[in-house]
């Protein structure tokens, strides 16, 4: 921290190249003020404390001047004592004001961070799944972490810096000129010697800092990629630890080298500042001493002016870099606004209608679907690839129509890539159809609220996600008010109750990140228990048993039988044996329904279904 001292503000600049030379959008400033509005009272008080602080900085040398000229020189002890006490009192008052200022600035700063973070989080949650498929989680998180902090600095460090430094500079310069314009002029002559290298160092440091951000990001992405369970597995099975360590070392080395460069530049800057100030002080004493001998100025004036001089350089350097500070804070705001402005692709209707509560009828009417292009769903700056892709997926579903009667079991089969999972994603509106419509109980799903729609539907996919929490909490995620009895009932129905009872901590057992401490079958049965707790009216199973061995699959199939009773279900099947009793089977190929009917009819027909069925009966899996 200490070595980066005056350049901390530069650190707020993001690693991202997009910050460089970015032009601000019109209206950004106005919008920032909107965020500051709730804090305007605090802001006034805070600026008030900054002003008092600046005045005290100038007042002290002036009082000391009086102490020497009116006390020491004429030999008046009472004046000396009195003024010394005033100086002490001012020092205490200054400390108090400084505390007060910090209290208010942190209220403003932290409050702003809190507001921005909550808003970004809430907004990102509203984004469609498509957004998350494209976005790099790391970049998104850095918007919520670092950019929000950078934005907040505009209000605390930068604002207080600008106000207090310009005020101090003005007051100090004015006081110096009034005391002795000759000394002031002479000591300011060497100022350019100082400003020029400062500018140069500032630019260089900005470049180095940006580079060090990049290097740090590279280093941490190496870690995040390798230190999650799948990455660690990959390294263990295929990788070479020595090569991995060497690779990491070289990245860490570059970070270290850059750190040394930055530290050295900072040191050069400090040396420049202190020596220039020291030389200026020498000048001031040299000229001022002669003037004092000639009685043109008093000794007190000489002391005061040299004391003031020492307080001139700090604000000067700070202000010479203020443009960079303000720009980077504003850019951070813009980057946060950019996320806030992103419109979710799937939107709630303005006047939502309720779907009738009867056991649902699901109807797909001439549904066609093309996955959206990258540019439609995310911010290029949140993706790693430099140029956004423009290729479309092509039509994934073509004019798909079918109807599921209330409480029936519909199976969808077909080769991999046919569009089966796409159908299961369209029903809960993870995406909206490109053409046609989907109706539940006669209501277009786009006319009801997304929340109501999703409450109706329960989905189990081939790898279910578990949060890094206890089994109980994971289950309650589907229904927070579930009672203990209900939870156990769901677990027993899902054939996982026995397993949970066998665990030493039972429902309180924490399942690892991404549920890795559970076997595939256990995890799937837990996911089914979660689905049962949610008790949705529509159940979609997307190859829920695809990853399981036959023993586990039998258990899960048993669990599923319970899950489907009294519900309208769509089951995307991997093994055809599990769907022979379906009310209807849809055979999908290249986005089209090529056959539909019951098992016996389709077998009798001798088409694609029959072909798939025969292949599986012979022991092949597709
Ligand atoms: N998020 C996506 N963006 C673009 N194309 C996708 C996306 N997801 C799937 N696809 C494409 O859509 C087609 C159908 O995929 P999917 O519905 O997952 O098939 P299935 O479940 O039948 O194996 C595939 O060609 C796949 O490459
Ligand atoms: Mg699929």
Short précis:
This protein is α/β, with parallel strands linked by helices and 622 residues long.
Q: What oligomerization state is this entry in? A: single chain
Tally of DSSP β-strands: 10
Percentage of residues assigned to helices: 55-70%
How does the helix and strand content classify structurally? alpha/beta
Bound molecules: adenosine-5'-diphosphate, magnesium ion
Low-confidence stretches: 1-21
The structural domain count equals 3
Q: Please, how many helices?
A: 23
CATH top level of the largest domain?
Alpha Beta
Mean pLDDT: 83
Question: What is the makeup of the main sheet?
Answer: 6 strands, mixed
Rg over CA atoms: 35 Å
- Tell me the span between the first and last alpha carbons: 59 Å
Strand numbers in spatial order across the main sheet: 6-7-8-3-9-10
Estimate what percentage of residues fall within beta strands.
5-15%
Can you name the CATH architecture of the largest domain?
3-Layer(aba) Sandwich
Name the CATH homologous superfamily of the largest domain.
P-loop containing nucleotide triphosphate hydrolases
CATH topology call of the largest domain: Rossmann fold
């Amino acid at each position: 921290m200490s070595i980066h001292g005056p350049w901390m503000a530069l650190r707020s600049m993001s690693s991202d190249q997009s910050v460089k030379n970015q032009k601000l959008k019109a209206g950004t400033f106005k919008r920032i003020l909107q965020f500051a509005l709730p804090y305007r009272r605090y802001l006034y008080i805070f600026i008030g404390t900054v002003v008092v602080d600046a005045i005290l900085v100038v007042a002290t040398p002036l009082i000391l001047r009086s102490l020497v000229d009116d006390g020491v020189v004429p030999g008046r002890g009472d004046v000396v004592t009195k003024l010394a006490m005033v100086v002490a009192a001012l020092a205490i008052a200054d400390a108090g004001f400084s505390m007060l200022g910090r209290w208010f600035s942190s209220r403003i700063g932290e409050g702003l961070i809190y507001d921005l973070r909550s808003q970004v989080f809430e907004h990102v949650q509203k984004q469609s799944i498509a957004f998350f498929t494209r976005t790099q989680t790391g970049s998104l998180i850095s918007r919520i972490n670092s950019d929000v902090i950078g934005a907040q600095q505009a209000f605390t460090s930068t604002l207080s810096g600008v106000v207090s430094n310009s005020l101090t500079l003005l007051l100090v310069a004015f006081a110096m000129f009034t005391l002795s314009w000759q000394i002031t002029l002479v000591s300011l002559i060497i100022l350019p010697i100082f400003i020029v290298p400062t500018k140069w160092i500032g630019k260089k440091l900005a470049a180095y800092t940006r580079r060090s951000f990049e290097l740090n990001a590279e280093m941490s992405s190496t870690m995040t990629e390798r230190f999650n369970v799948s990455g660690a597995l990959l390294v263990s099975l295929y990788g070479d630890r020595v090569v991995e360590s060497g690779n990491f070392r070289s990245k860490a080395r570059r970070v270290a080298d850059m750190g040394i460069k930055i530290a050295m530049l900072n040191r050069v800057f400090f040396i420049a500042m202190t020596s220039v100030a020291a030389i200026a002080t020498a000048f001031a004493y040299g000229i001022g001493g002669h003037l004092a001998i000639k009685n043109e100025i008093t000794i007190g004036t000489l002391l005061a002016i040299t004391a003031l001089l020492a307080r001139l350089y700090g604000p000067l350097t700070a202000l010479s870099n203020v443009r960079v500070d303000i720009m980077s804070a504003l850019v951070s705001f813009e980057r946060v606004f950019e996320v806030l402005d992103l419109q979710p692709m799937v939107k709630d209707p303005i006047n939502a209608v309720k779907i009738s509560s009867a056991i649902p009828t699901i109807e797909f009417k001439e549904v066609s679907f093309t996955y959206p292009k990258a540019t439609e769903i995310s911010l290029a700056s949140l993706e790693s690839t430099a140029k956004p892709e423009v290729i479309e997926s092509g039509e994934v579903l073509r004019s798909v129509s079918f109807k599921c009667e209330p409480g029936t079991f519909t199976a969808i089969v077909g080769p991999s890539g046919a569009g089966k999972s796409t159908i299961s994603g369209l029903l809960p509106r993870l995406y909206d159809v490109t053409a046609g419509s989907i109706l539940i109980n006669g209501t277009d799903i786009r006319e009801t609220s997304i929340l109501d729609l999703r409450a109706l539907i329960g989905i189990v996919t081939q790898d279910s996600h578990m949060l890094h929490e206890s089994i109980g909490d994971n289950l309650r995620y589907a229904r927070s008010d579930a009672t203990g009895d209900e939870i156990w009932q769901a677990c027993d129905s899902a054939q996982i109750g026995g397993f949970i009872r066998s665990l030493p901590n039972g429902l309180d057992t924490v399942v690892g990140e991404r549920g890795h401490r559970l076997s595939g079958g256990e995890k799937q049965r837990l996911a089914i228990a979660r689905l049962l707790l949610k008790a949705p009216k529509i159940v979609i199973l997307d190859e829920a048993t695809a990853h399981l061995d036959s023993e586990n699959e039998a258990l899960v199939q048993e669990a599923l039988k319970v899950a489907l009773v009294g519900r309208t279900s769509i089951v995307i099947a991997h093994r055809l044996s599990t769907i022979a009793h379906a009310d209807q089977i849809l055979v999908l190929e290249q986005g089209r329904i090529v056959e539909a009917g019951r098992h016996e009819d389709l077998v009798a027909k001798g088409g694609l279904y029959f072909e798939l069925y025969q292949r599986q009966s012979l022991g092949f899996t597709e």
